[in-house]
From TrEMBL:
PANTHER family given in the database record: 8-AMINO-7-OXONONANOATE SYNTHASE (PTHR13693:SF100), CLASS II AMINOTRANSFERASE/8-AMINO-7-OXONONANOATE SYNTHASE (PTHR13693)
Record-linked InterPro entries: Aminotransferase_I/II_large, AON_synthase_class-II, PyrdxlP-dep_Trfase, PyrdxlP-dep_Trfase_major, PyrdxlP-dep_Trfase_small
Identification of the protein by name: 8-amino-7-oxononanoate synthase
GO biological process: biotin biosynthetic process
Known cofactor(s): pyridoxal 5'-phosphate
Record has Electron transport as a keyword: no
SUPFAM superfamilies xref list: PLP-dependent transferases
Domain (Aminotransferase class I/classII large): residue spans on this chain: 27-368
Length: 377
């Protein structure tokens, strides 16, 4: 079989399984994007001087000509926002997760990861080849079983890590971070938390769940992205001064990647202040969460989680695709999520609530969902 035939067979198999993907521009009312605070409809304004003076390309890695002083300003602002010692900017959330984990975890170390963690985390673990322990989703007993066993047999010089998300992107539920921190401390493990979906939305100033729970000093590192609630391009890692120094010297994802354009740094400086001051946006978001989830509950749905990510699990791939298609034809942009993004037989509609959704819009969507599910049940 030739290469082209192999590609064709793979694509045809995906089509037969209702797992074929294509790229479609966003149209209809947005319940798909991660624009939780509604910033995606317009850019955060920057000064004419910044637009004229800041380069629009990185022109090299940050260790070469790609660095610009504005990124030091951005990292300082972010560190102050999170109450962290240091921050290191990265080009994307995927790169930040993969770069952090593959740099700090070595072959022979032991890593416990929640089974629902993002693909970037599992790709990192594939690369760095630790001894892996995949614990059942948010199952503290299963996690402790692994920690207890590893603590008894851990080789000399090897480290233990726990990796989880604070809000899980496909389920919308929160990790029991306080309990996980306590387990990590009890067994001498280092905790790393992916805060992609909580950044901007949780805590008094929106800095995320780790900070809202006052756990900053008790975790090794957190990973944050600008491409969700903040409406910005890029991502960053929060941790100690020593961790930042180590990453600068050892992280291949920083060393061998062209830096973000300095012009984006001006948007970050403005955007950080915008999100810190946007308590009203966070209040609107969680008001919408309460309203929409109560509407679904009144319609008889038992929906997991309690965040602005609302998964409606339908099971079969073809049913999820069919329901999403019907909603799209009626003006609602809600996408079908299928394996491998979610476990087998748990295809779903993933509904993403935003601060700028109106109560009327949410009520209309709840009615439309009830109608479509009744028709296609």
């Amino acid at each position: 079989m030739g290469l082209i035939d192999r590609w064709k067979i793979t694509l045809n198999t995906l089509k037969s399984q209702d797992r074929y993907r294509n790229i479609r521009a966003g149209d209809g009312i947005d319940f798909t994007s991660n624009d939780y605070l509604g910033y995606g409809h317009g850019r955060c304004p920057i000064s004419v001087e910044d637009q004229a003076s800041l380069p629009v390309t990185g022109m090299g890695s940050r260790l070469l000509r790609g660095h610009h002083p504005i990124w030091e300003q951005v990292e300082a602002q972010l560190a102050q926002w999170h109450g962290a010692e240091s921050v290191l900017m990265m080009t994307s959330g995927f790169t930040a997760n993969e770069g952090l984990l593959t740099t700090v975890i070595e072959p022979g170390d032991w890593v416990a990861a929640d089974e629902r963690c993002h693909a970037s985390i599992y790709e990192a673990l594939r690369i760095c080849r630790p001894r892996k322990y995949i614990f059942k989703h948010n199952d503290l007993n299963h996690l402790e079983d692994g920690l207890r066993q590893e603590a008894q047999i851990r080789p000399v010089g090897r480290e233990m890590f726990i990796v989880t998300e604070s809000i899980f992107s496909m389920d919308g539920d929160l990790a029991p971070l306080q309990d996980i921190v306590e387990l990590a401390e009890r067994y001498g493990a280092h905790l790393i938390v992916d805060e992609a979906h909580s950044t901007g939305c949780y805590g008094v100033n929106g800095s995320g769940l780790v900070d809202a729970l006052h756990l900053r000093s008790r975790v090794l590192a957190t990973v944050h992205t600008g491409g969700k609630a903040l409406g910005l391009c890029g991502a960053y890692i929060c941790g100690s001064h020593l961790l930042k120094e180590y990453l600068i010297n050892r992280c291949r994802h920083l060393i061998f990647t062209t830096a973000l354009p300095p012009l984006l740094g001006a948007y970050w400086c403005k955007g950080i202040q915008r999100v810190i001051n946007d308590n009203s946006g966070r209040e609107l978001l969680f008001r919408n969460v309460q309203l929409f989830r109560s509407l679904l509950h009144d319609s008889g749905w038992d929906i997991r989680g309690d965040s602005y990510i609302v998964p409606i699990v339908v099971g079969e791939d073809n049913k999820a695709v069919r329901l999403a298609q019907q909603l799209w034809l009626q003006g609602w942009d809600i996408r079908a999520i299928r394996p491998p993004s979610v476990p087998e037989y748990s295809a779903r509609l993933r509904i993403s609530l935003h601060a700028d959704h109106t109560p009327d819009c949410l009520e209309n969507l709840a009615l439309r969902l009830r109608s479509i599910f009744t028709e296609y049940h």
